[in-house]
Amino acid sequence: MDFSLSEEQLMIRDAARDFARTELLPGVIERDNLQKFPTEQVKKMGELGFLGMMVDPKYGGGGMDTQSYVLVMEELSKIDASCSVIVSVNNSLVCYGLEKYGSEEQKQKYLTKLTTGEKLGAFCLSEPEAGSDATSQKTTAIEDGDHYILNGTKNWITNGGSADYYLVIAQTHKEKKHKGINAFIVEKGWEGFEIGPKEDKLGIRGSDTHSLIFNDVRVPKENRIGEDGFGFSFAMKTLAGGRIGIAAQALGIAAGAYDMAREYSKVRKAFGTEICNHQAIAFKLADMHTSIEAARNLVYKAAWDKDQGNDYDMSGAMAKLYASQVAMDVSIEAVQVHGGNGYVKEYHVERLMRDAKITQIYEGTSEIQKIVISRGLLRD
Ligand code: CAA
What we know:
Blueprint: H1 7-24, H2 28-34, H3 39-47, H4 66-79, H5 81-101, H6 104-114, E1 121-124, E2 140-144, E3 147-158, E4 165-171, E5 181-187, E6 193-198, E7 209-220, H7 231-267, E8 269-270, E9 273-274, H8 279-308, H9 313-338, H10 349-358, H11 366-378
Parallel strand pairs: 1-4
Antiparallel strand pairs: 2-3, 3-7, 4-5, 6-7, 8-9
Helix pairs in contact: 1-4, 4-5, 4-7, 5-6, 5-7, 7-8, 7-9, 7-10, 8-9, 9-10, 9-11
Bound molecules: acetoacetyl-coenzyme A.
């Protein structure tokens, strides 16, 4: 067993760490307060190659492994989880989905722009009545000559207002249930495609989340991804990798909160000494660090599985389930270590605590991860 990182992986991790400290940290509180999308920062992340990390260089990607991607997600999330979810959706849902299952024409037309940051992607599966129950798609895509006609509403879409290209899942043949679902590439600005109001969220407030409305949107047939009826499999297979990205985000949130609690405990004094000298605080740090290490091992193992070509449905689900719980627990404890200051925005940990919650909800709730894990355990 080799737990060491390669020179290249260390370099990319350090680049992400520097970027997060110099470019994300300065405006992070303001963006959270104002729900401001990090337009400039996303542009810079595109220039650094963070938006299409695992894609083949012939499509403008970085040709990196999943481990490198996870390291970048972890570092960005320590400082700004709003930025890291933008990276996660673009990399592991949109770019991965297109590279793995798209046609050569789709890759040339769309993927080459998504990897460089020239364009941003969104993944549109959730609906008012199809969150966890993702097979219950009400959005329809009905064939009409060379086109499909798209009608319906999508909810809670990350990058909803800021994306240029949207991967939209819709029902084509209702009678075939999940085998009649398709996935399409839809461009912003097409007639009948409306962006709904922005959600006012508890956390990751810098990322923009919208509902999307499709009213008789004409989608050319060449924009369907894969064979007719492949859409649900497409969504599930893509989300399996996405969950590794969100697990890394949760790990980063926990690690960021822990780092701040540790530093704070070394300078804040109570009862005549730095609070880290009180066992009540030192033991908290010990518990936080131990659970973060356990989460890190699960996240890196899932990334390793994907890089080795092993099945990663279960390891990704376990990593997300566990790391998101650790993100909640550690960020709450980090607020506690900070005492009154922990409840104040200036000290960052209250934001990390709010941001942590979404990692137990999106890309499959914790309950859905338990379905995936338990079904995997009981298969055959
Ligand atoms: N890979 C390939 N196929 C898969 C699969 C996978 N990982 N998981 C399921 N499938 C297939 C099954 O094999 C089955 O196909 P067959 O009938 O041909 O065998 C089909 O999908 C239906 O599967 P189930 O019968 O298991 O369906 P189900 O309804 O019982 O449960 C589920 C499926 C796992 C609960 C699924 O609905 C699910 O994952 N739900 C959560 C959805 C989710 O993660 N949403 C996140 C939204 S995206 C987001 O959050 C992005 C963002 O903006 C950050």
